[in-house]
Amino acid sequence: MSPSKLELLTAWLPTRPWYRDSGRAPQLSKAGGFRLDDPAGSVGIEFVLVNDSAGPESITYHVPLTYRGAPLDGAEDALVGTSIHGVLGQRWIYDATRDPVAVAQIAALLAGQAQPQAQSASDTPDPSVVVSTIEFPSAATEFGSSVEGSTCTDIAVGSGRNIRVERVLRLDAPNSTVAPHESAAGSQRPDTHPDSSPAPEGSTSDSRRHDALAAAPNSGVTPVYAQHPDRLAEVPSTDATLANSESADSRHADEPISGPHSARVAMPWQDVTGSTVHGVVLAIDA
Q1: Smallest Cα–Cα separation from 184: which of 280, 271, 265?
Q2: Which residues does 74 contact at the CB level (< 8 Å), separation at least 6?
Q3: 5-31, pLDDT tens digit by residue?
């Protein structure tokens, strides 16, 4: 793609309220990610993680994107940019938190009705992405506007529920844990998806930590910080402030979720040192 995703994000990230401005232009590198399939097969949905080493401390950002063959009506302010794909031609790239196709599939994922796919290989499930689900109606059709906070984006999906998209995945954040001496080993998957980019070299799954996350309780969550690399970090559940689209103006995305149950999506990524980090990137309150 030309310009590349990293080039587009270098210009777009500093416009976000959750971006940590160091006074220098972002210095981005790929950290990981995964994809979801659009049932209609027309919209690419990718969850991109990038490391920014511009500041004194590297920060990982979670940037869900959608790729479309034509502009999305009414979403001009959600446009990340346009790019030319070598096969598909011009692509319109959007912040996925503002794209109804992506939001519907995120809801399906959190309800256990969609499967994470490898970032750089078609028709290949990604077992390193662990989903802890709850029962709730996943047919997200009553979308409220997304609300940007200082570390996350919240989306109202009807029935008094919010989808939370974690944006800032710093190592000192309560939703991440790092294994500082863990060296990921593995081979790069072939780039076969029409909107894909190469997977980070050395990406792999750590079954012990993933099994621990799958078994983690959904209530009474206590944050575990990165200084405990042998323990899986929990993300605090988030307060249902996005009850519906009518109350969108009163929502505060940084307020904690206090609901007793939640569904979460956790995954590994690589920081700038090559260490594998695990944490929660998506959640919904019950």
Answers
A1: 271
A2: none
A3: 999 999 999 999 999 999 999 999 999
163-175 burial, b at 16+ Cβ within 10 Å, e below that, comes to bbbbbbbbbebbb
Sequence-distant (6+) residues with CB within 8 A of 83 are 1, 2, 3, 4, 5, 8, 90, 91, 93
Which two tokens mark 150?
A: 């200082």
pLDDT tens by residue, 42-94:
999 999 999 999 999 999 999 999 999 999 999 999 999 999 998 888 999 99
Threshold 0.85, pTM exceeds: no
